UniProtKB/TrEMBL annotation:
Its EC number is 3.5.1.116. This is Ureidoglycolate hydrolase. Keywords: Endoplasmic reticulum, Hydrolase, Manganese, Membrane, Metal-binding, Purine metabolism, Signal, Transmembrane, Transmembrane helix. It comes from Rubroshorea leprosula. Belongs to the peptidase M20 family. It catalyses: (S)-ureidoglycolate + H2O + 2 H(+) = glyoxylate + 2 NH4(+) + CO2. Its main location: endoplasmic reticulum. GO terms for molecular function: hydrolase activity, acting on carbon-nitrogen (but not peptide) bonds, in linear amidines; metal ion binding; ureidoglycolate hydrolase activity. InterPro entries: Amidase_Cbmase, Bact_exopeptidase_dim_dom, Peptidase_M20. Pathway: Nitrogen metabolism; (S)-allantoin degradation; glyoxylate from (S)-ureidoglycolate: step 1/1.
């Protein structure tokens, strides 16, 4: 079915990996953390500047640029059969606090370079090709991961919930969006939803964020499935009081309830017996946060994931039971136990896997089928489109920290496979 091959055209098929590296370095300067760390949070000034940078590059690549009400950005190259469902690719450019330059970014700047590769190759797409920059893949500001792609996939519950969503500074989602130039006229986000069938395929290029490809010396990871993520917000409340004057038997310390629950999260994850079950308490805030005041409130956020959805749900149930038991034993109240998201895993489309395998083979690049333990916008695009994902190696598997790194050669390989796969999918 993918009869379109590298030999179908005779112009050179080559990646300008030096320019790509330069762009990655430039984009990383739009950051609220000192280099080499990158912090780029949704709708901040740095995010707006970074978006402008990407839109400019899309324009230079000859793409027509459109933005939706939450700032998902689309760059389109019309095919010669523009009414056929398009082939899309893309990723995100937001970066969690003190992270690196490559997470998401490789799938956006790499996609623009893939389009440039195809143009230099004199390729003419049959189906239109589209690059998508997704709004807020990371949950940093509003606690919701993959905000843009969830909405594209038609998440009405989220569209409603955003009307009452605020960030840690009590700034509403809509005020923040407006400050970045989005959601100007509406508070109805249904305009963002895409119809199923808008795309015949969606593929995302991303760094592996794990060590396998580097250790095994494999160039391209072809993702067969994305693990099921969940996140939970928990609040405990006690009476607080003076750290010297309130004697130990009279305390109900909300902070101790939270740390006890953090240890219970680890225990319940390990009880699953599978190496694929993981759990993390990445946020733990104590109120009032003074050395001489017993914490009267504790806020924690728990991330738990598994490739097996049922097993992950069992962990969530156990965490909930522990939260209740700990609250009772410590005479604090469990004032919130909110499951923010509890998503099923997603499977890649067989025909897209085959296109990526064929492209790697034609380019003489080794490849390997693997699962994605991190989540990606692809998890939600899979709800409205056949989906595929590909990984490139990254140094020691580092991600979500400043040491994150992918070599120019590895990015070049990823962009070549992406470009050729887009060409095949466009012609099929
Ligand atoms: C994405 O950043 C994830 O946490 O998997
Ligand atoms: Mn990330
Ligand atoms: Mn990412
Ligand atoms: Mn991610």
């Amino acid at each position: 079915t993918h009869s379109f091959t590298l030999t179908s055209l005779s112009a050179p098929f080559s990646v300008d990996s030096q320019t790509l590296q330069k762009q990655i370095d430039e984009l990383s300067t739009f950051s609220d953390a000192p280099a080499p760390a990158v912090t780029r949070v949704l709708y901040t000034d740095k995010d707006v500047l970074a978006r402008r940078y990407i839109k400019n590059l899309m324009g230079l690549a000859g793409l027509s640029v459109r933005e939706d009400a939450v700032g998902n950005i689309f760059g389109r190259w019309d095919g010669y059969e523009p009414d056929l469902p398009a082939v899309a690719t893309g990723s995100h450019i937001d970066a969690i606090p003190y992270s690196g330059k490559y997470d998401g970014v490789v799938g956006v700047l790499g996609a623009i370079e893939a389009i440039n590769v195809l143009k230099r190759w004199a390729f003419k797409p049959k189906r239109s090709l589209e690059i998508i920059l997704f709004t807020s893949e990371e949950p940093t500001r509003f606690g919701i991961s993959c905000l843009g792609s969830r909405l594209l996939a038609g998440d009405e519950t989220l569209a409603k919930a955003l009307k009452a969503t605020v960030d840690g500074q009590n700034i509403s989602f809509f005020d923040a969006a407006r400050s970045a130039g989005y959601a100007r006229y509406e508070d109805d986000l249904s305009s963002v939803f895409l119809k199923k069938g808008t795309y015949s395929a969606f593929i995302e290029l991303h760094i592996e964020q794990g060590p396998i490809l580097e250790v095994e010396g494999v160039a391209i990871g072809i993702v067969t499935a994305i693990a099921a993520p969940a996140s939970i917000k928990v609040d405990f409340e006690g009476s607080g009081g003076h750290a010297g004057a309130v004697l130990m038997p009279n305390r109900n310390d909300a902070g101790l309830a939270a740390v006890e629950l953090a240890l219970a999260v680890e225990k319940h994850v390990l009880e699953s017996g599978s190496i694929d079950t993981v759990g993390t308490v990445g946020i733990l805030d104590l109120h009032p946060g003074a050395i001489n005041s017993i914490p009267s409130k504790a806020h924690m956020e728990i991330d738990t994931r598994d490739i097996d959805e049922k097993r992950r749900n069992t962990v969530i149930q156990k965490i909930h039971q522990s939260a209740n038991t700990i609250a009772k034993n410590r005479r604090v109240s469990l004032s919130e136990f909110k499951i923010v998201n509890q998503d099923p895993p997603a499977l890649s489309e067989k025909s897209i896997i085959e296109a990526m395998e064929a492209a790697s083979k034609e380019l003489n690049l080794t490849n390997k089928l693997m699962i994605s333990r991190a989540y990606h916008d692809s998890l939600f695009m899979a709800r409205i489109s056949p989906m595929g994902m590909m990984f490139i190696p990254c140094y020691k598997g580092y991600s979500h920290k400043p040491e994150e790194y992918a070599s120019q050669d590895d990015m070049e390989n990823g962009v070549m496979v992406l470009a050729l796969t887009l060409a095949k999918l466009s012609m099929s």
